[in-house]
């Protein structure tokens, strides 16, 4: 484990917030020292360069990629922090580089990143294109995979604020998945390795953010990249960056993902994967979807002479407006889950809570939601 002081020193200060675009990544890559080998590995639909970064001399080959969904940037920030750490004088950094060779694509979907969308310019979800490989970005990923022949793959993503851990009121700040390789979700040798690495990361994180680590749904889908690479007998891990309290910019979660990457790389470098138990993987609670961003209870307090007790779930829609990311509140009514918790819960029958809500810059939109519903 590295200290908070060291993390603040190696944190890439040029990239913060949620809206991370191609030009920022190019600037980071341009400033990397010569120990990094930067390769142009292809282009996006709109012709933006996709680059892979290689470092290390070890026999264990680790391939990771981030922002295949353009609006999922937390792991990209963590990868940039990793770039800085690996060229530090830290003993762990030297061990990783001596025992591992890393190949990293920090931004697979630069067009989606610019537009702040999950999909690419052709409106294709690259994480559902593993079999067809209909998109240039999908072919870039597969080409690098086949050429590098990794021993491990890290598939780096963000998840929505709706996820909680199990049935608890704890947000799923970080979630992991050892993707299935068949419909039966059986445990192949490669999937077993994925599970053990996740157990190692979970044990580390429990000491920092206890009870806020979840396990992602492992339903099999051959069109997903993780499932495909697992089918090809390469241990693959899905990383999901989630919500930390009051951390909509995901700067706290960024650090937890960075620490998770370090833990996994350290276990690989020291050949300690077998020290961890598969059985403990299934003890990690599976994610549920019981959160909303704002839960208004007793919302009759928003309207005079309304005696009905109303609960209004509100979810932020991340919206790019004039090049700036804004969080726009919208009424949220999911069909497949029960809403139990709010990252912010406002009891509208309490004057103090109501005044707190009315002080929010987005209150007019919430009031409009209420007026529409009532």
How does this model look, in words?
By secondary structure, the chain is an alpha/beta fold. It has helices at 4-10, 22-30, 74-86, 91-99, 110-115, 136-148, 189-206, 225-231, 251-269, 351-358, 363-373, and strands at 37-43, 49-55, 60-66, 100-105, 152-158, 164-165, 174-177, 213-215, 236-241, 287-288, 291-297, 312-321, 324-331, 341-347. It has 2 domains: 4-288, Aminopeptidase; 291-373, no CATH class. Helix content is 32%, strand content 22%. The strands form 3 sheets. An 8-stranded mixed β-sheet has the order 1-2-4-3-5-9-7-8, sandwiched between helices. Strands 13-12-11-14 form a 4-stranded mixed β-sheet. α3 crosses α9 (251-269). The model has no long low-confidence stretch (mean pLDDT 95). This is DUF2817 domain-containing protein.
CATH fold topology of the largest domain: Aminopeptidase
Beta-strand content estimate? 15-25%
Query: What is the CA-atom radius of gyration, in angstroms?
Result: 21 Å
CATH superfamily of the largest domain: Zn peptidases
Low-confidence stretches: none
Tell me the total number of β-strands. 14
InterPro entries: Peptidase_M14
Domain Peptidase M14: 11-268
Protein name: DUF2817 domain-containing protein
Active site: 240
Q: What can be said about this structure in brief?
A:
With 374 residues, the protein is of the alpha/beta class.
SSE inventory with pairings:
Elements: H1 4-10, H2 22-30, E1 37-43, E2 49-55, E3 60-66, H3 74-86, H4 91-99, E4 100-105, H5 110-115, H6 136-148, E5 152-158, E6 164-165, E7 174-177, H7 189-206, E8 213-215, H8 225-231, E9 236-241, H9 251-269, E10 287-288, E11 291-297, E12 312-321, E13 324-331, E14 341-347, H10 351-358, H11 363-373
Parallel strand pairs: 3-4, 3-5, 5-9, 7-8, 11-14
Antiparallel strand pairs: 1-2, 2-4, 6-10, 7-9, 11-12, 12-13
Domain Peptidase M14: 11-268
Protein name: DUF2817 domain-containing protein
Keywords: Hydrolase, Metalloprotease, Protease, Zinc
């Amino acid at each position: 484990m590295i200290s908070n002081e060291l993390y603040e020193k190696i944190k890439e200060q040029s990239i913060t917030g949620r809206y991370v675009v191609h030009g920022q990544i190019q600037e980071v890559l341009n400033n990397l020292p010569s120990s990094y080998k930067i390769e142009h590995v292809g282009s996006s639909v709109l012709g933006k360069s996709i680059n892979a970064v290689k470092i290390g001399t070890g026999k264990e080959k680790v391939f990771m990629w981030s922002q295949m969904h353009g609006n999922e940037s937390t792991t990209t920030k963590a990868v940039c922090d990793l770039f800085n750490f690996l060229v530090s004088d830290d003993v762990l950094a030297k061990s990783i580089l001596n025992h591992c060779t890393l190949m990293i694509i920090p931004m697979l979907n630069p067009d989606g990143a610019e537009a702040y969308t999950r999909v690419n310019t052709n409106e294709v979800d690259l994480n559902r294109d593993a079999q067809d490989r209909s998109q240039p970005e999908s072919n870039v990923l597969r080409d690098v995979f086949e050429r590098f022949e990794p021993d491990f793959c890290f598939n780096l993503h963000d998840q929505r604020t709706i996820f909680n851990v199990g049935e608890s009121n704890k947000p799923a700040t970080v979630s992991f998945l050892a993707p299935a390789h068949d419909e039966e979700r059986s445990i192949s040798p490669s999937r077993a390795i994925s599970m053990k690495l996740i157990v190692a990361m979970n044990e580390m994180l429990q000491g920092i953010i206890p009870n806020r680590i979840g396990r992602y749904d492992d339903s099999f889908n051959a069109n997903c990249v993780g499932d495909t690479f697992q089918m090809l007998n390469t241990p693959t891990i899905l990383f999901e960056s989630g919500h930390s309290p009051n951390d909509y910019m995901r700067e706290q979660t960024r650090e937890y993902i960075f620490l998770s990457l370090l833990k996994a790389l350290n276990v690989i470098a020291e050949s300690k994967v077998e020290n961890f138990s598969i059985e403990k993987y299934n003890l990690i609670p599976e994610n549920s979807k019981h959160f909303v961003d704002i839960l208004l209870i007793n919302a009759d307090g928003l309207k005079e002479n309304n005696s009905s007790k109303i609960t209004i779930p509100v979810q932020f829609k991340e919206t790019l407006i004039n090049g700036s990311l804004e969080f726009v509140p919208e009424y949220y009514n999911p069909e497949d889950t029960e809403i139990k918790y709010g990252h912010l819960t406002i009891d509208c029958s309490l004057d103090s809570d109501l005044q707190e809500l009315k002080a929010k810059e987005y209150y007019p939109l919430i009031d409009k939601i209420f007026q529409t519903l009532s």
